[in-house]
Model the fold of this input.
Amino acid sequence: MRSPVLPLTWHLAKASGRRGLQSQLLAAAAAAVGSLVLLTLLAAYFGAGARADRTAWRTPDADRHGTAIQALTTTYVRDQPITVVSLAQLPDHRRTPAPPGLNTFPEQGELYVSPALAKLLHGLPFSQLGARFPKSTSHGTIGAAGLASPDDLVAVVGRAPTDPAVSKSAGRYGIYDQGLTERAVVSGFSGTRRSVFTADDQSAVLLGVGLLVVPVIVLASAAGRLGAARREQRLAALRLAGATPRQILAMTGVEAAAVGAAGALAGAVAYGALLPALAEIPYGIGTWYTGQLWVGLPWVATIVLGVAALIAVSAMSMLRRVASSPLGVAQQSDPRRTRLIRLVLFVAVLVYIRMSTGGNTLKPGTLVALMVLFYGGFWMFGPWVVDRLGRIAGRFARRPATLLAARRLSDDPRGAWRTVSGLVLAGFVAGFFTVGHLGIVGFDQRGQVAVPLASASATRLAVGEARTLLRAAGVEATVGTADDDFLLGGGDGLVAHVPGGPAALDTAVTALQPLGAGRLPYTGAYAQAQDTAVTDRLAELGTATLAVSFLVATASAGLTAAANVLDRRRTYGLLRLSGTPLKVLDRARVRETVLPLLVLAGTTTATGLYAAVQVNKAAGSEISTSGAVQLTVCATLGALAMLTAISASRPLLRAVTANPAQSTD
Done:
């Protein structure tokens, strides 16, 4: 016998009318936003790893049977790092394969540069940058296979085996050189050590994913509950008419999965269409190649099916009362109370997190897992707080709008929590990142150029020559030995203090290059490269995470508020028939949002502040002094966005109460 589930589901979906279609469209929109954000997060994670892998060939991987010498060094111009790879074919050895991005191994005197570096060479005076490279009438171009980003600044120089740039003196020996200067005999370019400037990108993205994935999942699960009250009424009638619990469950799952799949597929299509625009968003060393952000069809299908399944499970989880007490649902009795076990579980989660983080250095994956656990615990705890808040507000209410809001909070705490949950969880992100920017403390090496040298005697001889070179280049500077500054990290060499800004500093670096004997002069940016790479990524991550979290929160609030209006159509109609002004109903909706928002968002923001303080304390760095201002701006914008999203459903409230006698049918 053919199952009646599918035909009946289709019939009920068609018969749900314009209001039912609106609920389905809202659910599909929530699914689309969730799918789009999840795919974007996944693309950023995989893309960061892919482009970091493209930098591994630059760090030489020693081979005692090698056929060429490879020397890596890093120079800066306008505080931007330029990776210089010098290559020399050893005589009487087999031909070394070409490095990524080149067709052949470079001959002596050949110069290859990335497109971004070529543009920079043409844009800056020769004395500031071009003179650092071998004189050549033309240069080749490094292909995308050898670059991490279209903005990557890379040069490959062909050298003679006797050139000082590939001699043993060109190898690493200072405390600042790790990952920036290396030298080895190699046989190919299959290294695995990622560049300093990309090595931590994927870990930072993983942190952002951990902060955002739960709010996105919350949005997707909320989509399954959109129109829940109307669905419960309809299915309770079917249950009283003789439908089995299994049939009710199947009809709900099929309808929610179909709506969720349609919305998630629309989000996936939007992700594909937005790939070129997403690739233009800078992160780390610059923008992206579009192919780096494509996750592949299997992952797209997984996200679409996962979002659809999540919405279906969320919708079916609401049917317990329909199956057990259809008459109570039909009569709209038995308010959805919450139990004290939620508070107990939340406290247990906090204790576990505190024990896990006490005095331990956490790996990025563990840190993300703990953040997800905290979000999950707060997700359980939120409805309990909303329920108690509604009871307290109802006891002390003095105005009709406040009394109505309090009654709605205590009657349906889960629904009220879903409206504000996005911004409440975003409060943690805002509290953490606005004051949690790590900073390097105790170093001020601006306007300084260091030239590492082999010995103290070589340094004394080079001081006079350095002054001559700087004078010839038109740069006013004070030249001293390594004893004058910490920039050389305790090694031998000289330091030039150069006033006059970035142009004079870059000219000084270029002018002093002949003194290095294989080592390029460097500035304070070189010495702080590894720390700066981490702090810059965290700052960029904070900005992106805040933007996405508030976007998701606003979308969640707007969709949920609109769905609540449709779900409570009968209640609003009865209130209008009893003489309640429309303004009072609208004020009650706003207060129903503001009350839990103030309490819960304040709690999560304070938790984010505490986490930021602990992270900065562990890193030995200072709290951002402008964090209070940024936090105030974020909180204000978030609250305004939330209220705007809720206000957007005001015309819908007016529409559903336009004919209150019909709305109560």
